[in-house]
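re: that chain from earlier
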Amino acid sequence: MRRYLLKFLILCIVLINISCENDSENDLIDVTPVQSLITYDNTIKSIIDTNCIFCHNDPPTNFAPMPLLTYDQVKEAVDNRSLLDRVSSEDISFLMPAGGPRLPQATIDLILQWNTDGLLEQ
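^ sequence. v structure.
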């Protein structure tokens, strides 16, 4: 009886191994999580509100050249006023927010991704 039980267990293990085997890489499923697009409304506005509008208000203070209160103003700053260079700079004299510290890299990456995604508003 033990002999039949042992053969049965071996057969089960072999069948399980065969059924869980992939024949090629094409059988594998990509489980990379889908990332949503970064938009001004869902991500960037809160970053700007938290880190920039102290100076980039209306009217701007502390020698800030423009307000950053609306989508259009922030988009204009990315397109024409080097906002991406300013927030990602490691040069303390060029860095925004003025007087530092530098934004966390993950936050900078979100702003850069927003640009890559097309500067979407919503």
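The chain is about 50% helix and 0% strand.
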